[in-house]
Structure formats: structure tokens, C-alpha cells
Write a structure and sequence with these properties.
heterodimer, A: two-stranded antiparallel sheet, B: Rossmann fold, 10 strands, globular
């Protein structure tokens, strides 16, 4: 066990160093993709908590993302709030709406649940578009200021005007979210969520309160999706109702599925893969989307457990063989 | 031992699915410390009775009292928290987890640390996780799976998977254990071992309700037996009395699926 742990720690440190150094190794456009990959990774990680670990296919995460983004942006631009104070507010709004949606829909099974979250997503983006007085409607909210500087007591202050600073902010938030999810899934709560995904009847007979744990997962996940939205709003500086629309939710589902549902690293691997892949397919010009589609079909057919799930299965097979040949 | 206080009491319990009454006006009592078998031909309502007791299905009429609590309206997890564990006719386990992980999931209601304790990795949290591990291994000792603790549950043979299910149910420290056909698909020798296991669990102070088709096992292990036919209770009492009762013989001989005992 110990050498494996050491390898894992080294691998994680390696990825971390790479993530910190990456902005200096790429051009402006790739840097933009990098920031977006980090923000989408937070959204995908939040979705993985409900879709991967708990087994609830939510198509509402684009809406939670947008609600977090709008809450923060409106509080900053219209109410003059300090940016940092808007973060808990944005997360709370997303979590609260998540609880309400959950109470209404979590009793529905499988596809019915997915369809009702889909409709919810549509309703949210319609509200954002039509409630002109509050949200500026389809014009959107422009010139969202960067996060308020953080004073460093005598050492100047931490400023976030540069994209680089906002990249590191997003990276730090992603790491915090990953730590949160890691701790959560390695506790009794995570065991309960996985038990629900695998067998609701058995889980409830073992004492797992299905409604409570589904709501818990759903609201924590919604809050995290809202947090991703907040980072998006201060990176792009502009929001419109499309940002809360269905596509973000669909993309997040795709990232999680490609990376590996219910695996810890899957959402990040899937996001980075899918955000950067179109760039590598650029040489094919017009056929890019076609190739992307074919690749997706191939991956879902032959790697239903996603990239990380597939690697895990290969790894296990590799480990099983020498073990089986032991006397 | 059989004269202890009443643990489970069914009072005129009926369960109807539409027009079909799967369980009709069944009244029975299970005493503390006994092995109480429920037998009957296929489709006689045995599993439905278990589903009613464990809260998986609501009763249509009548009352079920467990340890004196009226369980009307309780969900399965609430019944579990009263101290009731169960297994299912088709073995239900978490197939891709290890045997130990399965057992630890069964400790769910015993875990006291919440979200924050786990988030900050408090000492209390780590100590508690370690304690649940130790206790889970003890339970695996009871069911004879200690040596298989780190094996993937789904890869075990059928007989051992059934024991994983029993270990999971025991992990919640139940006072009452409902076992729905634990001998399904077992070989002769495995049935004998299971019989020993049931006695061991009973001797630990756990009352057992057992649905069983293997008559030899029922005869040897049961303190009392209830016989269901067409959803109704036709006979109840000590094994020697019940198994020689004319109505019971008729109920079995009258069906195609007579038990292969």
C-alpha cells in the first residue's frame, strides 16, 4: 500500500506543478482554454457528486452555475457588495434552489428526474432573460469588475486584475473543491451516497435515509456549481442568460461521462480532454466537429466507465494476473 | 429462552395489491431470542410479510409492533434504526466493493461523525472510522468471512455472498434479523454450516425470523414455525406440531412447487 500511496502523492504533486507552470508554457489562446478547463472542472466535479457518486442524472447544473454567476455579479454591480462576500451568498442561493428542486423532484425515478431537472434549467434561463429590471435581460450584465483586492497587511495587496491572477484563484478553488469531495466520499456520507447509487432498496434497509442523503448531495453539489459560476463571471466579466442555459449542463455531463462517472479524477480528466481536444483536431478544419462526434460515440461504446474508469480496470487486470499466479 | 418478552407483533395484518390480498389478517408474535421460521408454498406471502415488517411496503390494514413501537408509516431506514436488519431472497450486496467495505456500509447508523468532522479529518472522525473497521472485522469473524475481508464481494461464490449480506445486516447491531431464504442455491454441506451460523447469531442475543424452503433446516433450527398459505396464517407453533399438522401437509401437497426436503 505504502509505495502506491507514495506514487500517487508524487503524481498529484507533478500535476500541481504542471498546473502552476502551465500559463508560462502556452500562448494566449491556450491559456484561455486552460482557465476555462479549470472552471469547467469545478462544475464537472460538482456534477460528479450527484451523477457519479449518488447516481442522479442532473441536467440542472448549468442553471446552478448560472445562478451562482448572476447572484455574485448582481450583488457586486447593483448592490456594491464586496466580491468575497458574494461567494457564500451565491453558493447559498444555488444550494437553496437545489434543495427546493430536490424536494420537488428527487422522489421521481431515473429519467423522470433527469427530465424535470432539464425543464428547471430552461425555466431558470427564461427567468434570467425576461426579468429585465433585475438581470438586464438578453443584453446581459457587462463590465463585471475583478475580485476585490485582498490586503496583505503591510505587504501590499493581492490583486486580481490580470487573467493570470484569476487563473490561480480558480485553480485554488478547484483544489479546495477536490479536497472537499475527497473527504466527503471517504466518509460515512460518501459510503451512503454510493450505496444509494448501487442499490436504493438495500441502502434504505441498512438505515440510509434516502431523501436526506440525496438532498444533501444535491444541495452541496448545487453550491459548488454556483461557485464555479462565480469564478466564470469574474473571469469573463460578462454574463448573459445563455450562461445559465442548458448547454453548460450538457457539457458538464459529457465531461463527467468521458472522464469517468463516480471516479475522483474523472471529471477533471474529462474536462481537460474535451476542452483541449477540439484544438488538436484543428488541422482537420471543417471535419473537426464530425470527428469529435465519432470519437465521442467510440468512447462511450468502448469506454463506458470513462477514461479514468478504463485505466482503473486495466490497472486492476494487470494487478490481478501476478496475484493469481501466486501459489 | 423462548418465554422472553414479545419482540415483533403482527396484529390482523393485511396487504393488498389492487384486488389481490397477498397477506390476509395475519397475527403472530415473535419472542426475544428465538429462531422463528415462516414457511409456506411459493406465493404464499412470506416475503411480503418481511417487506411489511422492514417497512419496504406499507401495510393495508392491521398493525405491526416492533419492540413495542407501532411501525405504521415508518420508512425502511427508520425501521432499521429500531434495530432490525434483513437480507433479501435474491442476495443483495455491493458487488464491486470488498467484503469489508460492504460490512462497513452496514455500520451506517452507528457512525456519529457528521459532515464537518469528516471535512476537517478530526481525530474523533479518524478514531471512529478505525473503531468501525475493527467492529466490522469482528462481525466478519462471526459469519466466517474474516479471511475474505479484502476480496471483491461480487467475485465470491454464492454461499459466501449470502454471508456478506448477513454481515451487512449484523453490522447495524440489530436485535432482530430477517433472513429471506438464506439457503437459496446452497449445497448440502453449506446448509449445515449456515444452520450453525444461525445458532451462533441467535446465541449472540439476536432474534431471527427466517423464511425457508429446506424443511430439514427448518425442523432442526426453528424454535417456532408459522405456516402461510394464500396469504393467510394456517398454523403456528413448535416444529414437531406444525410439520405434522394436516393443514400444513395439505397446503404443501396441494401445490406443484412442493419443497424438495
Amino acid at each position: 500500500m505504502a509505495p502506491r500511496t507514495a506514487t500517487s502523492v508524487l503524481a498529484i504533486l507533478g500535476v500541481l506543478v504542471l498546473a502552476i507552470a502551465a500559463p508560462f508554457l502556452v500562448n494566449d489562446y491556450l491559456f484561455h482554454l486552460l482557465v476555462m478547463a479549470v472552471i469547467w472542472s469545478i462544475l464537472a466535479t460538482s456534477l460528479n457528486l450527484v451523477m457519479g457518486y449518488t447516481g442522479l442524472l442532473s441536467l440542472a447544473h448549468g442553471a446552478f452555475f448560472g445562478m451562482g454567476a448572476y447572484t455574485s455579479a448582481l450583488l457586486v454591480t447593483k448592490c456594491g457588495w464586496n466580491f468575497w462576500a458574494t461567494i457564500p451568498a451565491a453558493m447559498a442561493v444555488a444550494a437553496l434552489v437545489g434543495v427546493v428542486l430536490g424536494v420537488l423532484t428527487l422522489r421521481l425515478a431515473g429519467h423522470y428526474f433527469a427530465v424535470s431537472t432539464l425543464s428547471f434549467g430552461i425555466v431558470i434561463s427564461l427567468i434570467l432573460e425576461k426579468w429585465d429590471d433585475l438581470t438586464e435581460g438578453a443584453r446581459g450584465i457587462s463590465s463585471i469588475p475583478p475580485p476585490t483586492p485582498i490586503p496583505l497587511f503591510g505587504l501590499g495587496e493581492l490583486r486580481f486584475e490580470s487573467d493570470l491572477a484569476r487563473y490561480y484563484l480558480a485553480l485554488a478553488v478547484l483544489i479546495l473543491c477536490l479536497l472537499f469531495v475527497w473527504r466527503l466520499v471517504h466518509s460515512a456520507i460518501g459510503r451512503a451516497l454510493e450505496a444509494i447509487r448501487q442499490n436504493e432498496l438495500l441502502a434504505s434497509c441498512l438505515g440510509v435515509n434516502l431523501v436526506y442523503y440525496k438532498l444533501l448531495a444535491f444541495s452541496l453539489s448545487a453550491a459548488m456549481a454556483g461557485l464555479a459560476g462565480v469564478l466564470y463571471s469574474v473571469y469573463i466579466n460578462y454574463l448573459n442568460p445563455v450562461d445559465a442555459g442548458l448547454w453548460n449542463g450538457f457539457y458538464a455531463v459529457m465531461y463527467v461521462v468521458i472522464g469517468g462517472m463516480g471516479t475522483f479524477w474523472g471529471p477533471i480528466v474529462g474536462t481537460v480532454f474535451m476542452v483541449t481536444l477540439p484544438e488538436f483536431l484543428r488541422v482537420f478544419q471543417d471535419y473537426r466537429l464530425l470527428l469529435l462526434g465519432i470519437l465521442l460515440i467510440i468512447m462511450i461504446t468502448f469506454l463506458p466507465a470513462g477514461i479514468v474508469g478504463g485505466i482503473k480496470a486495466l490497472w486492476r487486470r494487470g494487478m490481478a494476473r501476478p496475484a493469481a499466479s501466486r501459489p | 429462552m423462548n418465554q422472553g418478552p414479545v419482540l415483533v407483533e403482527l396484529d390482523m395484518v393485511t396487504k393488498a395489491f389492487g384486488g389481490l390480498r397477498a397477506v390476509r389478517e395475519v397475527s403472530l408474535q415473535v419472542n426475544h431470542g428465538e429462531i422463528f421460521s415462516v414457511i409456506g408454498p411459493n406465493g404464499s406471502g412470506k416475503s411480503t410479510v418481511f417487506n411489511l415488517i422492514s417497512g419496504v411496503l406499507p401495510v393495508t390494514s392491521g398493525q405491526i409492533r416492533i419492540f413495542g413501537h407501532d411501525t405504521k408509516g415508518l420508512r425502511p431506514h427508520q425501521v432499521a434504526s429500531l434495530g432490525v436488519g434483513r437480507t433479501f431472497q435474491t442476495t443483495q450486496i455491493f458487488a464491486d466493493k470488498t467484503v469489508l467495505e460492504n460490512t462497513i456500509v452496514g455500520r451506517h447508523l452507528q457512525v456519529k461523525t457528521g459532515l464537518l468532522g469528516a471535512q476537517f479529518g478530526t481525530r474523533h472522525f479518524r478514531d471512529e472510522e478505525a473503531r468501525h473497521r475493527v467492529r466490522s472485522l469482528e462481525i466478519l469473524d462471526v459469519v466466517g468471512l474474516r479471511g475474505d475481508a479484502d476480496r471483491t464481494a461480487g467475485q465470491l461464490p454464492n454461499a459466501l455472498q449470502q454471508r456478506v449480506a448477513i454481515a451487512m445486516a449484523l453490522a447495524n447491531e440489530p436485535k432482530l434479523l430477517l433472513l429471506d431464504e438464506p439457503t437459496g442455491g446452497l449445497m448440502e454441506q453449506e446448509v449445515v454450516e449456515l444452520m450453525r451460523l444461525l445458532r451462533r447469531i441467535r446465541d449472540l442475543g439476536v432474534t431471527i425470523m427466517l423464511i425457508e424452503h429446506k424443511m430439514r433446516l427448518v425442523r432442526q433450527v426453528s424454535d417456532r414455525i408459522a405456516v402461510l398459505n394464500n396469504g393467510g396464517l394456517i398454523c403456528e407453533g413448535k416444529p414437531e406440531t406444525v410439520l405434522n399438522d394436516a393443514r400444513v401437509v395439505e397446503a404443501y401437497l396441494g401445490t406443484v412447487d412442493a419443497p424438495a426436503a
